[in-house]
Design a protein that fits this description.
two-stranded antiparallel sheet, single chain, globular, 7TM_GPCR_serpentine_rcpt_Srv, transmembrane helix, 12 helices, mainly alpha, membrane, transmembrane, Serpentine receptor class gamma, about 5% strand
């Protein structure tokens, strides 16, 4: 009963998050000629919005539907297509690594604009096109997961003699590889975000007049993203060592790992960026209230 209710809640959250992302994309497209939407931050956010929409669609079609009895035979029949099962399993990791890379890139852009305003490097970032930013988002995650296509085979199967339907491999090296690569990747991102946002918070607190507003924005960004990264990291450790698998709530937590960052990101974006929130939620108004955390120039 708890698991069924949780699945309904997950479906509602995914549908709501997809709707919010569609509003964000529409707002950025409608105001694409505005100078504030031609920055590295917004180009990254544009790419991230489409990546997260793909994540939701991927989750609904390849994972969420596996929870229903009527879909069991269909997914078991997909074992005939080896490349499909490889793509589905490996893409789960690929998507999550790209999500984390995007968080790190966004943090790096803010650090450069707020704390280390190096003119040459900032100019390079601001001139990057969306496709170039996409390469930055995808390159390292692709390098990590690409060897998996040649190393492992995957199959759908029932856990024991009952549901849930799982997609896994019998090769024990896979869990070790994924855990080792994922742990180092996620821990590095978590530490970078922790110290990066602490540095931004300290810098803005010292240099700006509108401290309360900027402090709140940074705390929202930092708190939500660190919460999401921490949840993903915690889930990977629990899954590797099979902690709490007997509890329905923990199984639901494992199942939704790839949703934490995109759902958190859309909430953070709408809460912390008033101008984008106004354009997304009030599409027929043109007034711009504010933008992202402002750049702070070095004192002469």
């Amino acid at each position: 009963m708890l698991l069924s209710g949780g699945l309904v809640l997950v479906g509602i959250i995914v549908a709501l998050s997809m709707s919010l992302y569609c509003l964000l994309i529409a707002a950025m497209w409608r105001h694409r000629k505005s100078s504030c939407y031609k920055t590295f931050f917004y180009r990254t956010l544009w790419n991230e919005s489409f990546l997260d929409l793909f994540c939701f669609i991927f989750f609904l079609t390849t994972m969420y539907t596996r929870c229903f009895d009527g879909a069991v035979q269909f997914f078991l029949s997909m074992n005939r297509f080896q490349m499909w099962t490889k793509f589905v399993q490996i893409s789960q990791e690929h998507i999550m690594y790209m999500q984390i890379m995007t968080v790190v890139l966004t943090l790096g852009g803010r650090l450069l604009s707020v704390c280390f305003p190096l003119k040459k490097l900032s100019n390079i970032l601001e001139k990057l096109e969306r496709w170039q930013i996409f390469i930055l988002q995808a390159f390292l995650p692709t390098v990590i997961v690409f060897p998996l296509y040649f190393m492992f085979d995957f199959q759908y199967g029932l856990k024991g003699i009952t549901k849930p339907l799982l997609l896994s491999t019998l090769d024990p090296r896979y869990d070790k590889y994924i855990f080792g690569a994922g742990l180092s990747y996620r821990v590095s991102a978590f530490i970078l975000c922790l110290f990066g946002y602490a540095t931004i918070f300290w810098k803005v607190r010292r240099k700006t007049n509108d401290r309360k507003r900027n402090d709140l924005n940074i705390l929202i960004h930092a708190g939500c993203l660190l919460l999401a990264l921490g949840a993903v990291l915690f889930a990977s450790v629990c899954r590797r060592f099979q902690i709490g698998e007997s509890f329905a709530l923990m199984r639901l937590f494992f199942f939704t790992t790839m949703l934490w960052i995109p759902c958190t990101n859309v909430i953070v974006t709408l809460c912390a960026i008033a101008s984008l929130r106004q354009h997304a939620l009030h599409p027929f108004t043109d007034q711009v209230v504010t933008s992202v955390i402002p750049s702070i120039k070095n004192e002469r």
